[in-house]
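Standup notes, structure subgroup. Blocker cleared on the glutamic acid input:
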Amino acid sequence: MNVVRFAPSPTGFLHIGGARTCLFNWLFSRSTKGKFILRIEDTDLSRSRKEYLDEILNSLQWLGLDWDELYYQSERFDIYREYAQKLLDSGAAYKEENAVIYRIPKEHSVKIYDLVHGEITIDTEHIKDQVLMKSDGSPAYNFCCVVDDALMGVTHIIRGDDHIPNTPKQIILYEALGFKLPKFVHIPMILGEDKSRMSKRHGATAISEYRRQGYLPQAVVNYLSLLGWSPGNDREIFSQQTLVKDFSLKRLNKTAAVFDINKLNWINGQYIKNMELEKLTELIVPYLKEKGHIGETYDQQWLSGLIKLYKTRFCTLEHFGELSGFFFTDTVHYDEAAVKQFLSTPAAVENLEQFKNMLSKLVSYDVKTIENAARALMETMGIQTGDMIHPVRVALTGGTVSPGIFEVIHFLGKEKAVQRLETVIKKIRTRAEMFDKLSGI
Ligand code: GLU
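Run returned:
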């Protein structure tokens, strides 16, 4: 049976790279009916923090990466001491102050057979003697990692290739302790778009931050799977089940993956588009509440309708509230260029006025009625659609991009739409008068 593990240190949040490593381990175990172990490497008692641990566990659960066994290295110090003692007893290790140190055999070379990188040979000449137990009684990473991987029966070590320098040191310890070597699978790093190692400079790195911004866990998993692995065809959207079915270590990429937020946004948008409206509404509500867009009570049917109208336009749950803010608040942000282009002529104001009067007289307020009345008005006035629609859109939404204007007018509701047009008309007129006065001086 294949046994793999993900071994985070709770000294920071779970970031994109860690989550990707975890996902590949999880996928490999699930696709081969193996075992997936979560091992918390909390040996550094001063740097490990409970809040990081909780965040890591929550993020993994959110991503749907469940584990079969959970271990904490901080509870296993006796085991590491016992194995350090064995090496002391055999003379392979020595004590210095209170630390236990392993003597690296010189003139020896270590070969790593890596499933991604092939064979790597390292001369032990460049490896210093290895600390096994530190003088404060805690074990060193390379030592407890080997003891645990061996005792837990780990068959494949799948981790980032930034760990390659540790691998020969670990192989030496496997040999010293008489343990069977696992297979090594070092996955290439994730780089930012400028090709330097992915870091905060490139945007959010913590999984919890993506969750907060309203990315969906299925979309994040889908995107992460493509960072360093490919399904062997052009498909880009796959469910967790499909991934489990199709995943194979053979199709891991040999070169670094580049993190592309636009692609993640696109994938998230696809999941949003395909999500059931009721579920999507439920997920969006907390974001709207947080923004103060809605309170405890709101018109559920109206909101679902609005979300449906925007479904192909937003890429995160948070993004919806950003795009549709003008439906919820009267403090509309007006785009300066749009105002200049579409609201600064007397004709535009006249058109708005006529449009407002037409709306205020409507008895029924469904999309079709609004559209028919608007078209009839434009015909009577003898003006082009654009001359009416553009000013109306800027006046109601603040910008030049929105879903269909008649839908927008419908969802705003008659009262709000008429009022907003009135406010805008008044504002432009006051401004025009002011300019007239100024130029008369
Ligand atoms: N705790 C180590 C880390 O966070 C684990 C490395 C490994 O997988 O061996 O990088």
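Discussed briefly. The chain has a mean pLDDT of 95.
Next: hand off to the docking folks.
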